[in-house]
Q: What sequence folds into this?
């Protein structure tokens, strides 16, 4: 091999590396950190319902059927972007969609839902944000797919878009359906 | 008169050096120092370039209170870190742990250094050999 070509080869390698970095960044969310909870049991929780704070919902009550846990808040900007997508698609997903109102004033949350619509089968309120810490939530919106046995199978950090639902979420839900039957 | 103004101004600077964001009721100074050292080693997941000690994010405040509570309950630094990594992955640690997934991170620079040193050594050896050959050649040319 001609040694004089070595610097050029090194340069080409560097260009390839930088190009790969740019391409990779465009397809991946830079702030997204894979959750260590995937494949594990969802944490134990007992939370009051948003619309009836005298009643609570806990993990055991949700076992038996898969569900989607959608972390949202009335103060969360990206949740507004996500909300119409949920309104349009929640009914066709094939799983229950449970709302998780995160560090929010219940009145604000109710007003927000009255204004934009309520896509959720049930909504729990975590005003203190302590259950959210157990779920490793660090920014709303976040969405967890939890199977009939209570195991977290998938997590989306950031808003659900029609594209993400079609490409990532729906195949996971369909896979759960095949397991169940 | 001027000296007094200067002293007053110096006192006005004092609040800038105080960096504790929330007033937590520490048992003693040692616990406070331990808390500060620990939160400096942990990443705020919201801002990601700030430590839990520095961040003003809502979640960082919640986690600081959480860590404080765990300290009151006698948890060790190790246990608190395990608690956080179980929820937020190793990404919360500014100092990544040594495991097969981080071998490249820990030993990669050393490996690069070895490759570099190896190629420098190879180049130097080849050049000195070429130089000797060239010297030998000039010698024969001289003869010729």
A:
């Amino acid at each position: 091999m001609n040694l004089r070509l070595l610097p050029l080869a090194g340069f080409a390698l560097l260009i390839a590396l930088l190009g790969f970095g740019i391409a990779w960044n465009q397809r991946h969310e830079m702030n997204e950190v894979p959750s260590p909870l995937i494949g594990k049991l969802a944490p134990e929780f007992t939370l009051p319902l948003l619309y009836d704070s005298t009643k609570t919902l806990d993990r055991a009550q949700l076992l038996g059927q898969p569900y989607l846990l959608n972390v949202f808040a009335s103060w969360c900007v990206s949740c507004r972007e996500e909300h119409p997508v949920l309104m349009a698609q929640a009914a066709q997903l094939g799983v229950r969609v449970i709302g998780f109102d995160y560090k929010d004033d219940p009145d604000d949350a109710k007003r927000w839902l009255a204004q934009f619509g309520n896509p959720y089968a049930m909504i729990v309120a975590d005003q203190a944000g302590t259950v959210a810490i157990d779920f490793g939530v660090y920014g709303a919106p976040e969405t967890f797919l939890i199977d009939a046995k209570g195991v977290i199978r998938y997590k989306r950090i950031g808003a659900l878009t029609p594209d993400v639902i079609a490409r990532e979420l729906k195949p996971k839900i369909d896979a759960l359906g095949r397991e169940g039957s | 008169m001027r000296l007094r103004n200067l002293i007053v101004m110096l006192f006005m600077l004092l609040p800038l050096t105080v960096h504790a964001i929330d007033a937590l009721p520490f048992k003693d100074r040692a616990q406070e120092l331990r808390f500060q050292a620990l939160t400096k080693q942990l990443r705020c997941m919201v801002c990601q370039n700030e430590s839990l000690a520095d961040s003003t994010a809502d979640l960082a405040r919640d986690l600081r209170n959480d860590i404080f509570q765990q300290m009151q309950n006698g948890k060790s630094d190790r246990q608190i870190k395990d608690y956080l990594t179980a929820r937020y992955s190793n990404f919360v640690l500014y100092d990544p742990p040594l495991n097969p997934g981080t071998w490249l991170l820990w030993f990669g620079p050393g490996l690069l250094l070895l490759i570099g040193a190896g190629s420098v050594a190879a180049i130097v050896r080849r050049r000195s050999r070429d130089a000797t050959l060239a010297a030998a050649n000039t010698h024969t040319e001289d003869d010729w």
